[in-house]
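The aim of this short unit is practical: by the end, you should be able to scan a pair of folded records and say something sensible about each. We start with the first protein, listed as its amino acid sequence and then its structure tokens.
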Amino acid sequence: MTVDKKRYMLLAIGGTIGLAAAFLQTIEKLLLVGNKNANLPCNINDVFSCSTVLNAPQSSLFGFPNSLLCLVIFTVFVTVGVLGLSGSRILNRARYMVQALAVFMLLFALWFLFTSTFVIGAICIFCIFCFGGLLLINGALWRLNFSTNISKSRFQDYMYMLTDRSLDILIWITLAVILAASVIVKFYIA
């Protein structure tokens, strides 16, 4: 298996993790629509309480459940990953557009997880899985897009330099550690 196919496989795996989590979260949201006080299976304790998060207004930022947006976008990531695995040629421009979508979703997930932690006061387990999937997706796309030096712009040269020195991996690990540390500090130390 080529290096690019392995990256497409990571993209498909990350998309599948996010898609499954978004699907389960959508089912949970539908249960809450019928009964706002429903005892959801993903309610573990006061910290990990999906119902607290899903009942908050931030969980429907665009007027519909955030999980519906995730269902659509994670489907795009899975599709691109499967296409790449099958050997289909994906244009650089299309991969850059998918990368932009992945970065947007990662920023949205970061916002939502920090809002869940510090405003809502609870964490949804499915959101953590979506975030993990997004880290895999962004890492795979970064490597697909910036692992060769095509030297078309300073930006691409800079991104290649980060990738060549494996600093991109440090970025993804740092994001995960910052998120985990903020949850630990908020709920278990403070």
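Turning to the second protein, read its sequence before its tokens, just as you did above.
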Amino acid sequence: MYSYDGLMTILKEKGLTKTALAVELGISSRTIAKVAKGEKIGNITLRKISKYLGCKPNDLFREVSENAILQILRDEKNAKVSGGLYHEQTVE
């Protein structure tokens, strides 16, 4: 499952709706429905949207898990949390 909170935040900041974005970029209503349902949309579409909004594709979405522990681990990895499971350690 995917969260498009980043996309929604950027759209809100720019005063745009998903529908207006779709019309402007020629994105199908099916793709907008995928965003609403938390489904993965294609990389080409993500790049198109990010270019239009002036951000990186990874700023638009994040992968989420229904398993709370897996989600915490994923968030730690992405945030590079110090002391988390994925904290990089130097070997001497």
